[in-house]
């Protein structure tokens, strides 16, 4: 078992781009924490005596929890499961929550990695996204966390924003580099149905940036970060000195993980399972015996498609040895036939052992993966 994921389903406000499961109503906070504890105890048997190598508090906004609540959850995990001595424990945090007393106290809980949702250092962008923080708070949140002794720091940025010029993005990337953090995640904006940005787009109030500008922003990001010592190890992720996100890496390496809380996913090599994305239904289910998840048993075809999505995203790529040892000829022939045109155009690289995406290939990774999917 590689990791434990805990979904904290609360946010003080909703950002205009975000479709992660969350509620802005905190009235069920105490009930949620009780239900979460109950779920961990009920599902302990799924983990057996496997060693837990990472814990990830995601959301929603895990930093709305107070120190006592984080401590109680972690103490329960430590008492229920076998924990690796060098475990990575990450908390996703919003900059406005990372004040000095909070981060000082956080280090005493066992949290040793903080992923800060900066999104942008530009006040105009932050306002447009309906973020709760401004650029000064963004910079201070990183300083506060570092001064509290949290060395393993990651920041999230979003690019491809409406009206974001290449110059605007360049300033953001340069500011991110000046923060001197060990890890940077930079995501291209996706318009999800049900979000304010999606509605604005449909109503013509905002426009998607052009493909040319998107590509220019991606290249600038990649080149500037690589020049300053970051390794581009996954489509949206960059790390210095091998400080990859151990938790996310285990997703891409298809190790088992267990997810607690509404909308949390779990994977045990053969089955994928996802908890209901509704806090009220989750609470009701935890009170009684009703089902609160759905699952699917993965066929060989699902496992092959999964391997494509997870491996091609990373610099470790698709291994021909793994393909041949795990999947039969049908899948191997199919993969080679579909991959060849991308190798010919330079979108994919093959060194005789590993297939990876080139810079141009990474930018159109969704299209490439679609072609490589096996639809039986
Ligand atoms: C679970 S979310 C947010 C965690 C935390 N609540 C925050 O806001 O900082 C994790 C990250 O996904 C990214 N993200 C969320 N929605 C996105 C979207 N529609 N397009 C691109 N990136 C997105 C953001 O960078 C965000 O920090
Ligand atoms: S981006 Fe973070 S704070 Fe904003 S709505 Fe999504 S989970 Fe909540």
What would your notes on this structure say?
The strands form three sheets. A nine-stranded mixed β-sheet has the order 7-8-6-5-4-3-2-1-9, sandwiched between helices. The mean pLDDT is 95. 43% of the residues lie in helices and 22% in strands. The chain contains 16 helices and 15 strands. It has 376 residues and is an alpha/beta fold.
Summarize the structure.
The protein has 376 residues and is α/β, with parallel strands linked by helices. Helix content is 43%, strand content 22%.
Q: Into which percentage range does the β-strand content fall?
A: 15-25%
How many individual β-strands?
A: 15
Low-pLDDT stretches are none
Assign an overall shape: globular
Helix content: 40-55%
Q: Rg to the nearest angstrom?
A: 21 Å
């Amino acid at each position: 078992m590689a990791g434990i994921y805990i979904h904290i389903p609360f946010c003080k406000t909703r950002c205009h781009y975000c479709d992660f499961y969350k509620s802005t109503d905190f009235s069920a906070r105490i009930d949620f924490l009780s239900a979460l504890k109950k779920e961990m105890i009920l599902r302990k048997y799924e983990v057996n005596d496997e060693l837990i190598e990472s814990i990830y508090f995601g959301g929603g906004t895990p930093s709305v929890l107070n120190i006592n609540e984080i401590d109680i959850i972690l103490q329960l995990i430590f008492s229920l499961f076998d924990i690796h001595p060098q475990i990575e424990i990450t908390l996703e945090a919003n900059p406005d929550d990372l004040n000095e007393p909070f981060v000082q106290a956080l280090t005493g809980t066992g949290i040793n990695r903080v992923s800060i949702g900066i999104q942008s250092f530009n006040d105009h962008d932050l306002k447009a996204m309906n973020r709760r923080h401004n650029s000064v708070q963004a910079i201070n949140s990183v300083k506060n966390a570092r001064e509290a002794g949290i060395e393993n720091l990651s920041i999230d940025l979003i690019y491809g924003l409406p009206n974001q010029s290449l110059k605007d993005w360049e300033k953001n990337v340069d500011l991110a580099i000046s923060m001197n953090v060990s890890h940077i995640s930079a995501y291209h904006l996706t318009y999800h149905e049900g979000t304010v940005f999606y509605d604005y787009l449909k109503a013509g109030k905002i426009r998607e940036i052009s493909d040319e500008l998107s590509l220019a922003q991606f290249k600038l990001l990649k080149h500037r970060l690589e020049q300053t010592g970051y390794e581009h190890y996954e489509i949206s992720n960059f790390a210095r000195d091998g400080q990859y996100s151990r938790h996310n890496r285990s997703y891409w390496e298809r190790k088992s993980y267990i997810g607690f809380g509404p909308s949390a996913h779990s994977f045990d090599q053969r089955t994928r399972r996802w908890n209901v994305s509704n806090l009220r239904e989750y609470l009701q289910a935890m009170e009684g015996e009703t089902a609160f998840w759905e699952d699917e048993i993965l066929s060989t075809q699902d496992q092959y498609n999964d391997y494509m999505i997870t491996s091609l995203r990373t610099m470790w790529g698709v291994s021909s040895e793994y393909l041949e040892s795990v999947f039969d000829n049908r899948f191997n022939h199919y993969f080679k036939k579909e991959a060849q045109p991308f190798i010919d155009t330079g979108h994919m690289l093959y060194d005789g052992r590993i297939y990876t995406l080139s810079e141009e290939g990474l930018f159109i990774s969704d299209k490439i993966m679609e072609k490589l999917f096996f639809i039986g």
